[in-house]
Amino acid sequence: MNEISMKAYAKINLCLDVLGKQANGYHQVEMVMQQVDLYDVVTVKCNPMKKKKNDVQITDPIVVTASRNDLPVGETNLAYKAAKLMQETYKQDSEIYIHLEKNIPVAAGLAGGSADGAAVLLALSQLWHLHLELQELMELGVQLGADVPFCIMGQAKKMQNLQLRGKEWASTCAFAEGIGEKLTPLPPLDCLVLLSKPSIDVSTAVVYNGLCLEDIKSHPDTKELILGLKEKNLRKIQKNMINVLETVTLRDYLLVAEMKQYMENFETAYQVLMSGSGPTIFALYTNRKKARLAYINSKKKSNETYLIRTLS
Ligand code: ATP
């Protein structure tokens, strides 16, 4: 087998807190991340490396294509970066072809790029029969981005026949600390998720740069939210679904604030929150009829609207 196709799942943040800024400029965060059943399909194919001329590689051995033509597919694509990192780390002599069937909205706060990068790491470790430890792959993944280890952990949970040691530890829901890379598995939340991306792109870096820690009035009690997940106590979860990055994104992007207000006005969800640095807003439902009605209305506001489930 020299080809593998896998699902690269999006995530939402059930809460996101920023505790401070590290000396290296990264923010220290605490968040609960949950994967949802919205995914890109990532296909990775390996061929033996073509002969080199005078030891110089003639063409780039990594080729990425995507179903969206507005996505850069060169060296800046996280799938490309992941393949390069694997080549450099495990020194395999192969050409790598990657195709991304994009369904996750881009620059949306849903970790679409990180999920694709994670999928490439998992796919190549499988195709090259590396028999790595899950932790080892996650440590490699953080070099690509803070959300990549979580994406690896969640995707590993959903992959059958995965040749990865320590995969019993994998989970689609986790508590994330540090810059988001220190992960503790949690019992996943089981509910419907309505998510809608207003038609603007928001840069994660710009939002973090605009954050003023002193201005944050309300922080989540992350410990209580975690307890809520363990006890399946919706009230404890709902009460602590707070994302401190809303203080920047909702203030600076009117369209995002309007979308949140719009979804809250249905008064049918048990909570409405922004995911990551935005602009995607999501609402959690336990009742399918109410969720469906809210979906039909939200779809009128934004084409990139989905009604899906959390992943367990
Ligand atoms: P996060 O929540 O991790 O900050 P995001 O959902 O906000 O991620 P992405 O969809 O990952 O954002 O896209 C952020 C930027 O990364 C975009 O500007 C996009 O051009 C670039 N990018 C690189 N590779 C990919 C990829 N495979 N899929 C989507 N975007 C990618």
Structural class: alpha+beta
Total DSSP E strands: 10
Bound molecules: adenosine-5'-triphosphate
**Secondary-structure element order, as H and E?**
EEEHEHHHEEEHHHHHEEHE
How much strand?
25-35%
Low-confidence residue ranges: none
SS field, number of helical segments: 10
Supply Rg: 20 Å
CATH structural architecture of the largest domain: 2-Layer Sandwich
Bin the helical content: 25-40%
Mean pLDDT: 94
- Major sheet details: 6 strands, mixed
Q: Using the coordinates above, name the CATH class of the largest domain.
A: Alpha Beta
Write the CATH fold name of the largest domain.
Ribosomal Protein S5, domain 2
Shape: globular
Q: How far is it from the N-terminal to the C-terminal residue, by CA?
A: 28 Å
Q: How many domains is the backbone divided into?
A: 2
Topology overview:
Blueprint: E1 3-21, E2 27-48, E3 62-66, H1 78-90, E4 94-101, H2 112-127, H3 134-141, H4 148-158, E5 173-177, E6 182-185, E7 192-196, H5 204-209, H6 222-231, H7 234-239, H8 246-252, H9 254-265, E8 271-274, E9 281-285, H10 288-301, E10 305-309
Parallel strand pairs: 3-4
Antiparallel strand pairs: 1-2, 2-4, 2-5, 5-6, 7-9, 7-10, 8-9
Helix pairs in contact: 1-2, 2-4, 3-4, 8-9
Residues 71-72, 76-79, 100, 106-114, 116, 147, 204, 276-277 line the site of adenosine-5'-triphosphate (ATP).
Walkthrough of the structure:
The structure is a single chain. The chain is built from 10 helices and 10 strands. The protein is of the alpha+beta class and 312 residues long. The protein has 2 domains: 3-185, Ribosomal Protein S5, domain 2, CATH 3.30.230.10; 192-309, 2-Layer Sandwich (Alpha-Beta Plaits). The strands form 2 sheets. Strands 1, 2, 3, 4, 5 and 6 form a 6-stranded mixed beta sheet that branches. α1 runs parallel beside α2 (112-127), α2 (112-127) packs across α4 (148-158) and α3 packs antiparallel against α4. The longest helix is centred in the middle third of the chain and has 16 residues, at 112-127. It is globular, with a radius of gyration of 20 Å. The structure holds adenosine-5'-triphosphate (ATP). Adenosine-5'-triphosphate (ATP) binds at residues 71-72, 76-79, 100, 106-114, 116, 147, 204, 276-277.
